Amino acid sequence: MKRNNHLVREIIYIHLNEKDQYVMSYGIEFAEFARSLSDLMNHVLLLKHQFDDGDFNMHTLLEYVPNERFKKLIQDDVYGYGDFCWIDFEEVEGLDELPGQELAEILYLGHIKDHLKQPFYNHLRNRFVYLAHDDGWWNKVYYRNMTDFYRMVGDVVADKLSEKKVEKNLFGLKKKRIFPSLPMDFLLNMRSLMKEGMVISLQDMTQNRAKIEIPIWVIGDYNNMDDMYDEYEKVVKGKCDIKLVFDKKLREWRSYSN
């Protein structure tokens, strides 16, 4: 049974598969992903969707979202699509030259949510393959360059914390407190935890005047996010494996093991 969507926003599950260059996740939504990485994309070929403002490509018999309408896709209710799958591409000319074998592989990706071969195509020059069911609940994203993934996670944790820490100013108006992204080298040091499957929980964070502490638990490899969440609910009662710490005075991130 699915939990409330607001819980998805405060808990991030990450399982990193370096060999096949993909990440399974829970709690990272398309809008958050796109806010971080949209500058690296041009057009998006839609494999599974309900977006009503795409262009039709006669060669692939699929719809795509041109760059100038990408913001509209970001603002759409992609969670409500159910399945939401896409692959980015640089130029329509490249899409029109896509060989039949590669198109078959791409259709398989959208249908089965798994790869036959590494899903990076010279004609498309794609950086990503984004496969989701109930976006933010079950996501599998392939990265041509894994540094894009680390950049995105660093941005998303900071953005989620900024959303969570909305405060009222003297006039009663809500004001975001902006947090810096997690540094790349900092995240690279957590690769081994990500490869085992870990949960970052803003829901269970603590703070005082000097710092904010965000706990991380290593919980294992899950494809079923109900099972993952059940395991999280068990381990959250015990000590976490590591903490992300934000020093409020220095405005810097650090981590330490429990």
The helix content, as a percent range, equals: 25-40%
- Work out the count of structural domains: 2
Distance linking N and C termini: 32 Å
Secondary-structure content class: alpha+beta
Annotation, overall tally of beta strands: 15
Succession of helices and strands: HEEHEEEHEHHEEHEEHHEEEHEE
Layout of helices and strands, plus pairs?
Layout: H1 5-10, E1 11-17, E2 22-26, H2 30-37, E3 43-48, E4 55-57, E5 62-65, H3 70-75, E6 83-89, H4 92-96, H5 100-112, E7 128-133, E8 138-143, H6 146-164, E9 167-168, E10 174-175, H7 184-188, H8 191-196, E11 198-201, E12 206-207, E13 211-218, H9 225-235, E14 242-247, E15 252-257
Antiparallel strand pairs: 1-2, 1-11, 2-8, 3-5, 3-6, 4-5, 6-7, 7-8, 9-10, 11-13, 12-13, 13-14, 14-15
Helix pairs in contact: 2-6
Which terms summarize this structure?
258 residues; alpha+beta; two-stranded antiparallel ribbon; 9 helices; 31% helix; elongated
What does this entry look like structurally?
The protein is built from nine helices and 15 strands. It is elongated, with a radius of gyration of 19 Å. It comes from Robertmurraya mangrovi.
Can you give me a brief rundown of this structure?
This protein has 258 residues and is an alpha+beta fold. The protein has nine helices and 15 strands. The protein has two domains: 29-135, no CATH class; 148-257, no CATH class.
